Every structure is written in structure tokens, then in C-alpha cells.
Amino acid sequence: MVAEAKRIRSIRPETISHQRGFETLAQEYDYSVPISAVKGQIPAAVRGTFFRIGPGRNKLGGQEFGHWFDGDGMLHAVSFKDDKVVYRNRYVRTPKYLAETKANKIVMRSFGHNAPGGIRNNIGRLPANCANTSLVYHGGKLLALWEGGRPWQLDPATLDTIGEHDYNGKLGKFNAFSAHGKVNARTGVYYNFGIRPSFSPKGALTGKGAIDLYKIAPSGNLVEKGAFEVDYLSFCHDFALTEHYMVFFQSPIAMKSPLPWLAGLIPFDQAIDWRPELGMKVYVVRTSDFGLERVFTLDNPFVAIHFSNAWETEAGTIELDLTRFEDFSVNQLLRDVFHSQGDSFGGTFWRYSLDMSRGGINARQYRDALPGEFPQWDHRYTTQPTSVMYAACGMSDNATFFDGVQSIDLATGEVKSHFLGAGRYTSEAMHIADPDNGDDKQGWLVSMVYDASTHKSEVVIFDAESLKEVAVVPLQNHVPFGFHCGYSPRSFVR
Ligand SMILES: [Fe+2]
Q1: How far away, in angstroms, is 119 Cα from ligand 1 center?
Q2: What is the β-pairing status of strands 205-216 and 190-199?
Q3: Whose C-alpha in 191, 195, 289, 460 is 20 to 30 A from the C-alpha of 115?
Q4: Ligand 1 centre from 10 Cα, in Å?
């Protein structure tokens, strides 16, 4: 199958630009697709709800947002029934969305642009929460996640916004709550984190960074908080979770000085730089008491954005997989994403083994993996060993966006891939397990695919082992390119 990937990369299918996939979807829909309109067959075990989130609009009043990360969060829910597939989409009603919709123009300062009106409208202001990055269904609550603020709760059936969620007052107004919490599959406990500046006991800035830690019981109650200090305040998007540890890779993406941003002169993303001179450390924190267990130093800094599964071994190592970028130039690609016509922003895939007793690190690249992003796995085994990682990838030489899905065998490095065809683009795919089959190489993947030739999207179900498309659900609308997904075996609609 590696050979197949190379062959497809050399046939140069005619490019149909992905760019219209960034167009705003203003309308909020509720409709059903009859089973007769579905190409192929939806597996009998797939009767739950697939959620997808991302920016629903990237411009307003004719003005483009400064960065892909600034778009207002829109949640899409796809419910698989015996006789139909039910689709619904809703914007998350954040203060940013409400104020800017009413004004029909940019009003608030965001991650990648300042508010209009100069310094007086930006000085000392934090980027507005746009609830657009990821989602979780945990403790009976559906949450839309950003990473610089608190989560937003939605009704899983109607997708109506319920409100900002603070876990019964346990998340403060300025507590960040990342987009990439993880649920220990064995215990059902949800762990998450947020980054912030470090303060002395007297409340003064120390010049270092801190990571807040949260433990949320299966009931949905936030039962424990902790924090630890890191060398400097940096961008930290994701972490790896094992049975006993949370593992953070601190990539050197940091501000040289916060003053131009605090003074309202530049937006946040222009204030952070690639600063390899700061070095890179790996912090391993115990889940039992949120104490720091071990710190590793890496010789060559890189950018770790997304992690796949992780686990501990009897030999005393932590095994984890991640997507790696060699510097932060990817941020410029994400900023220019509305105009890019072919810059690849896929990363490489790596295994890191952390020796918890002797302190060594072993890293090896999955060299046959295609450039990609959004690593995923069978979530039944989160914190326990898995054998395969799934990811979106760029396959054709002139791909302008992710035009394939791949699976990477974690033991052999063997790569299987599936080319979506010219003009078909995707992002993250979720693994759906067959409850009667414990093999994580089997089951299905589900993903949103944008077809540039029709300017509409499809919900595609792939066989996880062969990566063949087993069902294609045509939607009436396009789903703007987004970030992350979720799947619940529950159906919330009739
Ligand atoms: Fe992410």
C-alpha cells in the first residue's frame, strides 16, 4: 500500500481548487437525507452521532478575519438512523458571534486580528472566544471548545447554545480550557489543561508560564485542579494521556515581549514567534495528584501540535505518537489559508519513547507516512496500547488541501492510503469501533468531505482496514473546512 501512495502521488490528477470550501455557511439547516440517497451502505453498527466543528464564517461585512482560527464556531451534527441520516448545523452563540452578527462587521479583538478603532479598542483586551476548535461529549454535556477561554455548552439534539460552561463555578473567568482534553477509556475520567502566565504568591508576574490542570469525573463534575510552572509562556495545543501521566511537549513558540500585544498595537498571533533559543522540554505530570514526575530536555526543538494515543509499558517507558513541524512557519500558512493555492501544511508523524527510569528519549519517524494532520485512533483504548493511527493526508503532488486518508501501522510503519479523487478534500476522521470487534485496525472512519466540483459536502464512512469508502451521504450544503470531530454512539434525535 506504500507503493499505492507513491503511485497516486505521481499521477497528478487535475486540480480543482479547494478554496471555495472556506466560504461562509450562513444558513442553519435541519433536514434528513433518505437512505435511498446514500451511496453504498451505512454499517449496522454506525447508529450514533458524528459531530464536526470549525469556523462557519471567515469574513463579515465584506471584511476577512485575520486568521483561520478567528472564524465563529459552527457545530454540525450527523445522526445515523435506520431509514435516514439527520443533519443539523448551528453557530455557537458566543458574545463575539452575537455582537458581530448584530453589527454585521468585525467588532472584537481576536487571535489573528485587532478590533477596529485602534489602540483604545484593543489595549489590555484578550482575544474573543469563538468556540470553534474542538468538542467533547462527556458527563452528559456537549461542549464546544476553544483554547484561550472556557467551553460553551450546547444541546446535543438541537445544537442550541446553552451557555458558557464553568463547571459549577470551578473554572474562573480567565481560566483557559484547551481544545484537546482526553478521556481515559478505562475510567471515563476526562483530563484537560489551560495555559497562563505564572504568578508569584503575591500576584506578580514571574516571567514564566504555568499550565492549569483539570480532572473531570465521568459524572461531569470537575473534581480536582492543579498547576505546574514551565520555563516560559508558550503555545501548547495538546498533550498525551497515559494511565498515570499527562505529557506536555513545550514547543518554543513564545512572545519576545508581550508589550506590543498588551498595548493593543498588534494581534496575538503576530506577537508570538518561533524562538528555538528557548529550548524545548517535555513535562510529565502525575494524574493522581498533578505533581511533576519528570522533565526531559530535547536537543532539537520542533513544533508539536497534535498527539495520538499514548500508554505506559512494562519496560518503564511512555510510548506516544505525535504530528511534528520543524518550525512555526505553519502559522503563516494558516493565516494565509483563504488565499493559498497549494502550500502544503501537513506535518510528519513520529513515535516518542520516554524512559521514565533513566531519563532517555528515543524518537523515530514513520517515514512512509504521507504529510498530514489530525492523528486519530480507536478511543476505546485511550491510555492503552493501540496498533494503528489514522490521519488526513495530502496525496496528489498538486494537492491544495488534504485529499486523502491514511493509516499508519505503529509496529511496522506500513502505510495504507486512500485518495479521495480530484477536488475532494477532508480533514479529521473519527474512528468508529465495531462493538463486537476489539481489533483497533478494524471498524470504520467517518469524515466530512468537501467536493469542490459541486460545492457541497458529503459525510463519508470508510472501512478502517481497507480505507475503502463504504457509504457516502450527500449533504445539501457545503460544510466549511473545520478542525476537529467527535462521535457518540448515542443518537440524540428521533
Ligand atoms: Fe487541534
Answers
A1: 31
A2: antiparallel
A3: 195
A4: 30
472 strand-pairing partners: 39, 460
Q: Does pLDDT of 228 surpass 60?
A: yes
C-alpha cell at 437: 470487534
SS3 for 347-380 is EEEEEEEEECCCCCEEEEECCCCCCEEEEECCHH
pLDDT higher than 70, residue 457:
yes
Cell numbers for 176, please give them.
Answer: 483557559
Spatial separation of the C-alpha atoms in residues 263 and 119, rounded to whole Å: 7
Domain locations along the chain: 2-488
Ordered alpha helix ranges (H), 404-487:
none
> How far does the centroid of ligand 1 lie from the alpha carbon of residue 162, in Å?
23
User: Which amino acid, 300?
Assistant: N
Q: How far is the CA of 134 from the centre of ligand 1 (A)?
A: 7
Q: Identify the DSSP state of 269.
A: H
pLDDT single digits (tens) 188-201: 999 999 999 999 88
pTM here?
Answer: 0.95
β-bridge partners, 484? 53
Cβ 292 vs Cβ 250: under 8 Å: no
99-114 in b/e burial notation, b at 16+ Cβ within 10 A? ebbeeeebbbbbbbbb
38 alpha-carbon distance from chain centroid: 28
Query: In this predicted structure, what is the pLDDT of residue 392?
Result: 97
The stretches of 256-350 forming alpha helices (DSSP H) are 259-262, 268-271, 330-335
The residues facing 215 across adjacent strands are: 191, 224
Q: Which three cell numbers stand for residue 352?
A: 516518542
Distance 102 CA to ligand 1 centre (A): 29
CA of 485 to the centre of ligand 1 (A): 10
> Distance from the CA of 375 to the center of ligand 1, in angstroms?
10
Could you tell me the distance, in angstroms and rounded to a whole number, from the CA of residue 88 to the centre of ligand 1?
Answer: 23
Lowest-confidence pick of 11-20, 52-61, 327-336, 371-380: 11-20
Alpha carbon of 178 to ligand 1 centroid (Å):
9
- Cα-to-centroid distance, 290 and ligand 1 (Å): 23
Residue 342 confidence (pLDDT): 60
Q: Which of 59-73, 332-346, 372-386 has the highest mean pLDDT?
A: 372-386
Taken in order 21, 41, 373, 242, is the CA torsion positive or negative? positive
Phi and psi at residue 102, to the nearest 5°: -60, -40
Distance CA 181, CA 237 (A): 10
Distance from Cα 333 to the centre of ligand 1, integer Å: 15
From the options 1.10.1160.10, 3.30.1950.10, 3.40.1350.10, 2.120.10.30, give the CATH code of 2-488: 2.120.10.30
pLDDT bucket at 174, cuts 50 / 70 / 90: confident
